[in-house]
Write a structure and sequence with these properties.
The complex is a heterodimer of chains A (131) and B (118). With 131 residues, chain A is α/β, with parallel strands linked by helices. Chain A is built from 5 helices and 5 strands. A 5-stranded parallel β-sheet of chain A has the order 2-1-3-4-5, with helices on both faces. In chain A, α3 links the parallel β3 (50-53) and β4. Chain A is globular. The two termini of chain A are 23 Å apart. Chain B has 118 residues and is mostly helical. Chain B is built from 4 helices and no strands. In chain B, α2 runs antiparallel to α3 (67-84). The chains are: A alpha/beta (131), B mainly alpha (118). The interface between A and B is medium-sized, with 17 and 21 residues.
């Protein structure tokens, strides 16, 4: 079986590159999108096993991205881990209610980040639509 | 390559990204300060652009262990959110504008200090 694929949706190239290095070091494949619109398109094209999402994004924020993805018949089950610098007290509940699997506040501890990803992947069952 | 070598290479690459964040933030500082000056003068057209800068510096600064830089940028982001919520930035509470300019000055000093240490 191939590596699990993780889509990183973040508009900061330094953050993307840092996450890519850490995730690939841990045996995952990665792909990227820099805004909410191209993130939705990348989710459809790449069919990732998990999405790591920032909240402050151009072209619609992260909440909009979650709400759109969760209504998609095939992609709605993909776990979404929100990683944001925004205050967790004000945003965690909203993100989880919208459909996110977990909310981590930047700076993220790498061991915790990987543990949350591992757990979400273990619990994820991809949806296969009939032909 | 053994695990120690792999980890050392990973750490080296992460240090390079950290340095690249600092350089990019330093190069963006003049634009950021100009936007702050415009907002102080009552021109609200740069609010959204400044919010994008502040958000990026807030998140990346924390990720790359520049706590003071991240905190100042986070304060700017919060103040901008309050200003953007008002009908016209020029009519916003003068206290918010003073705080915004003060945070901008502090951010510039912290970026300068981090650059000197690097």
């Amino acid at each position: 079986m191939g590596n699990k694929k993780i889509l990183i949706v973040d508009d900061d190239p330094d953050i993307c590159r840092g996450m890519q290095l850490r995730l690939e070091y841990s045996g995952y494949d990665t792909c990227f999108a820099a805004d909410a619109l191209s993130g939705a398109a990348a989710a459809g094209k790449e069919e990732p096993d998990l999405i790591v999402l920032d909240l402050g994004l151009p072209q619609g924020d992260g909440f909009l991205f979650i709400e759109r993805l969760k209504t998609h018949p095939a992609l709605g089950a993909i776990p979404i881990i929100v990683v944001s610098a925004r205050d967790a007290r004000a945003n965690r509940e909203r993100a989880i209610k919208a459909g996110a699997t977990a909310y981590l506040q930047k700076p993220v501890d790498n061991a915790e980040f990987l543990a949350v990803i591992r757990k979400a992947l273990e619990e994820f069952t991809p949806v296969t639509l009939p032909e | 390559m053994d695990n120690l070598d792999k980890e050392a290479r990973l750490m080296g690459k992460l240090a390079t990204i950290r340095e690249s964040f600092l350089q990019r933030t330093r190069s963006e500082l003049p634009v950021l300060l100009e936007l702050l000056g415009r907002i102080q003068a009552g021109d609200s057209t740069g609010l959204a652009q400044l919010q994008i800068y502040a958000h990026r510096i807030h998140g990346s600064g924390a990720t790359f262990d520049f706590a003071a830089i991240s905190e100042s940028a986070g304060q700017i982001e919060n103040l901008l959110e309050a200003l953007i919520g008002t009908p016209a930035a020029s009519a916003a509470e003068p206290h918010h504008l003073r705080c915004l300019v003060e945070c901008g000055r502090r951010l510039a000093l912290e970026i300068g200090a981090a650059t000197t240490q690097a």
